[in-house]
Amino acid sequence: MRPDDVMTEVAANDDPDERRHAQKMEAMGRLAGGIAHDFNNILGMIVGFTELARGAAREREPTIVADLDEVLRAAERGKELVERILRFSRREHTLPEAIHLDTVVADAVRLLRATIPQSVNITLQHEGYLAPVLGNATSVHHLLMNLANNAVHAMPDGGVLEIRLEPFEARETFVHSHPEVREGSYVMLTVHDSGHGMDADTRDRAFEPFFTTKTAERGTGLGLSMVHGIVREHGGAVWLDSEPGLGTTVCCLIPVADDVANHRDAAPDPVRRKVVMLVDDEPAFIRLGERRMRDLGYEACGFTEPHAAIDAFRSSRREIDLVITDYSMPRMNGIEFAREVHRIRPEVPILMLTGYVEDFSLAALEASGIRRVLTKPITVAALADAVATALTTSEK
Fold first, then answer.
1. On the chain, which terminus has fewer CB atoms closer than 10 Å, C or N?
2. What are phi and psi of 371, to 5 degrees?
3. Which DSSP symbol is given to 84?
4. Residue 361's pLDDT band (boundaries 50, 70, 90)?
């Protein structure tokens, strides 16, 4: 919950106990947010420079590459820990971003293998190139956990849980039989269990909220309805196939991010000489960002002071193609900086990269010309997707 929302509730409530609770939540939210900002900045530098070292060692030192992969996995777990800490103190309304389902699902499967009974064997298969989808990694993680939990309950004596990811093209014939789906490119997530399956009546009600075949101690009936809601929030579709004694298969279609789908084959060449302006008060992030941009084929100019960056942007009007700014900076935050840049050249796309996890106002972001909010730490692959998408979108 945002601090201003907390204070509104405090003012409207005269109960002293609830007022004290709200004030505690406000204090905890501010503390958690401050910790998240500093910790995510640290993780951002760890991830960025580890990726650079990994690239340099790839051909000469394969054992070092394996060690650096462990560092990157540990940093990702650190990022997830920050998200869990913050979850109690803020709303879950977040801006969608380009995510790679293979990475999100692989992380979830690692956690599942450590938590589900050993009598259940998990298999994960990837088929073909998987384009990024526009969504929320935490929500997809919850989706898979709910599906896996249902599957485990359907296999009390053990069995096989099969998870598959594959590209999927929805054509006219398929759309005709699935009216909730539009033609286009998707990633299909399929989860199959070898459990007891469902009869026709259970299948028909499976996605209803609070409908469950479990006892009260084992389930609430919200699992599949949450899966349905998450998939629909991502603009996709979900259905299941099940027969008694033959197990259950749940299929989730998640649409590919439009700009990535339209430009993934053509984007690299036309943008290789684009100029990216980087603004961050941490000199280490500027050094990291400049190296990353050069490695991706862009030119980069970095500034640690937003006012100096604005002066440079104003004096070199036709040379800056994209701006990436930090949010938390002295004397001027990222939204204020973006507003000035947007006023000078409204056609230039702006990305905001931040270690502070907050529910930014969509209206404020749009008014400032900010196309996307990216959270530190960010991998070079995710950054490359965001930059390419922003640049190709601005050229339309």
1. C
2. -80, -35
3. H
4. confident
